Amino acid sequence: MFDIKDKVEDIVDNVEDIAKTYYRLSVVKVADKGSKLGLPYDYLTAVFAFVFCAVLCLFWIKLVDWCKAG
Q: I need a surface site. Which of 23, 33, 59, 70 has the fewest CB within 10 A?
């Protein structure tokens, strides 16, 4: 009698572990899809930041040039 009860408890534990693992796997898959979706926006943000900094540097250089001339 105890042998069957132990086996049933082991099966229940295994099913719980499988369910938890499946849930974790689904969370990882969703996070992976989300990161692939946001990747182009990361590049776009980096390019925008680079252009913005370049324009600010050019403006600063011109401002220094105007101050020297004036």
A: 70
Q: Which residue has the tokens 């401002």?
A: 63
Distance set, CA 43 to CA 32, 38, 40, 55 (Å) = 17, 9, 5, 18
Q: Which two tokens stand for residue 20?
A: 């938890």
Report the 3 state secondary structure along the chain: CHHHHHHHHHHHHHHHHHHHHHHHHHHHHHHHHHHHHHHHHHHHHHHHHHHHHHHHHHHHHHHHHHHHHC
Q: Mean pLDDT highest for which of 44-48, 54-58, 62-66?
A: 54-58
